[in-house]
Amino acid sequence: MITLYQYLHCPFCVRADMIANYTGVPHKKVLLLNDDDATCHQLIGKKMVPILQLDDGSAMGESLDIVDKILSLAPPDKQLQASHQADEVTTLLSEYSSDMNALLFPRNVRIEQPEFKTASARAYFQAKKEKVIAMTFAEAMECSEQAIDRVNDMLSKLPPLPATTRLGMDDVLIFPFLRNLTMVKGLTWPEPVKHYVNEVAALTNIHLYWQQAV
Ligand SMILES: N[C@@H](CCC(=O)N[C@@H](CS)C(=O)NCC(=O)O)C(=O)O
Fold first, then answer.
1. CATH code, residues 86-212
2. Which of 29, 52, 78, 202 has the fewest CB atoms nearer than 10 Å to its CB?
3. What's the rounded Cα separation, in Å, for the pair 84 and 92?
């Protein structure tokens, strides 16, 4: 059986996981600790998830390649609609990536998730991500309010999101990044955006963080 190695908080892993769940392709999930370098290196020669290991033992990285591979194993009625409108959304999201990182990185380790269940996994992530956001997690939590204002601005500017009647490549590109924002308490979600996140999560059996938001 194919095996998907991932972290729950990783948006690229969510791309692969949502398609594995949606298509029903039989697979095993392995939730790695965030500081487990060895498994990633053994499988693909670098520290990166998601990783898909195939039945012949070979392994591949890169979320969109993994999505394609899983789709190649899926029945015709579970194929995705082509992407039409993700560019506008992903461009907007990338303009706000530093605010989103400053909100999400410190919260990732505060929320109970398997990849952070050891102190060393949390310390590994914190040391790496504090460099990326150029502040400590404590500082990032303290100045959440400004970042929340800016991310609220982004949420209010989102163009209409795809219809959720049938899953498409747009959803693979858009949903994982919006989904992670559900771990941030105090954001103002426009109703259609909240509806979109809830609907895609239900279609793909992906955990949302509404109840754990900090
Ligand atoms: N281009 C890659 C990006 C994957 C990626 O950036 N994964 C992050 C987790 S969100 C990662 O593994 N970073 C290394 C680490 O956690 O040490 C993909 O689409 O799969």
1. 1.20.1050.10
2. 202
3. 16
